[in-house]
Each structure stands twice: as structure tokens, then as C-alpha cells.
Amino acid sequence: MTNWTDLKQIQKMGVRAITSADSDEFEIGQILMDVQNGRIYAMRSTDPDSATAGRDRIYWWGYDGYINLEFAVSSFYDNQSSPQLIGSGEWKAGTALTFNAAYDNGPATAANISCGSWDSNLVLGGDFTGPVTGASSAQDTDFPAAVGNSITFQLNATKSSDTDTATTSVTFYNERCNGTSTATSLDTAGINGLSSKVVTSGKNGTFTFNPSANEYIYIAYRAALGDSTFTVGGFVGGFESRATVSHTNSKGFTENYYVYRSTNHSLAAGTEVVVS
User: Fold this and answer.
1) What's the pTM value of the predicted model, to 2 decimals?
2) What domains can be seen in the chain, in order of their start residue?
3) Which of 220, 226, 211, 187 is nearest to 272 (CA)?
4) In this predicted model, what pLDDT tens digit does every residue of 16-35 receive, in sequence order?
């Protein structure tokens, strides 16, 4: 335990002693800080109203309790859901994107947002938190080149000589398409016409269908995901050999799809199909 001799030694080392009239805690005594171990000492009395207030007890605090004064980005949002359906060409015009930021121990004194497909950074103004939108076509954002890729936005914020960055991303996948049709085969328009389309990185799952009279069950997904095994009503099989179709989705992205059709049409309502 630190005693008066230790405190005197701290003072001899040139540690600054401060007093404050801002709160009762500080009014009644003196605060000392040991710059070598970071410990702060407060001298106060158990009875602040006594004539010897501030002389009969010493409290100290170490590194286990602190107030963080470091400047940092606490949050950064692009206000977009993820994942999204991949497409071709322009994903969003600059004015269609909005960003929000918040800071610890701010405000920032300058901030901008960068993106790999932009010609120039988007400079934030005001309190540098947003919402802010792109000011020109320089911030128009194109789809990534391949399924599974992401678009990443980076916030670069400054307060005096302190800097911090934060990123937010949107990842893009294609669709798994399921549904029913009376057609005996499907082209890309037929795939787009299926009733269930889910943006996903996978193909497997358990699905329930309610085909009407003369309708087949169809399951279509990216050929890059490989072949599947089908179980219908607990029995393996029930689907024809896959067809390969060059498929263009509703956002203009084209790649090969595997299309599977049930062997029989007019199956019972509530038919369960397991894809693995």
C-alpha cells in the first residue's frame, strides 16, 4: 500500500499535483498522478465536513478504470442490405447511395469516403456524419465482376493529427430459382419466371411445392455449384438429368445454370424435395 513517504517521493519526481473546484470530490483534497505507473491518488476524508477533511484517507485508481479520449470511428453505414443480386454495368448512381458515420470523441475535422470503382473520393461536409450522397457521376458504382465479390466503401476520418478508418461492404451472389411450370423445358426467360428466387451462395435445402395439374417442379441454380442429389417423399430420385442453360438474370448478369425438372407432373400438393 502506498504511504505518505511514497507520495512525497512522487512529488519529488516532479509529478504534477492538481486541484479542482468543479466537484465535491476534488474540492476536498488533492489529486496526485504517478507518471511511471499511471496510478492516480486522491487524498480525502471519510468526513468531508470535518476540519481535517482530505487528510485521513488516500484512494487510488490504476489502468483498470479509464475514460478513453482517443478519436475513432464508432460506426459507418452504407444503408444497403447484403447480399444482393449480382448484375452487369452500373449498380448504383452516386446520388442513390447514402452514408452515415459517427465518432468517439469527435467531431471529425475532415472526412471522405473512397471506393475502388470511383474516380474520386466523396468528401463529407458539415459535421462529417451524414447522411451524405454522391455529388457527381464520379461516385457512380458498378457491379463487381464476379459472383461472390464485394463492393467496399472506406471512411477516412481526421481530427487534428488523429486519423481513423472504417469499412462497410455489400457482397453479391446470384439466385437459386425454384417453382413449377407446364413447360417441358425452360430457357432463361422461363428461369426468371419461376416463383421463388433467392439470392444465395448455395444450392442445397429442403423445399415444398404445390404443383397444379400438368405442372412440373423445377429447380435451377448456378452451374458453378455442381451437381445435386434429389430426395422426394423420402426416396432418392424423381428428377430428370440436368440441362445446362445460359441464363441472364433480371440485373443483366449472364452465366450457365443447371436446370432440373421433376420426372412426373401433377405431383401432390405439399411435395417436399431435398436438394443436396
Assistant:
1) 0.78
2) 14-61 (no CATH), 72-172 (2.60.40), 175-275 (no CATH)
3) 211
4) 444 444 344 444 456 666 76
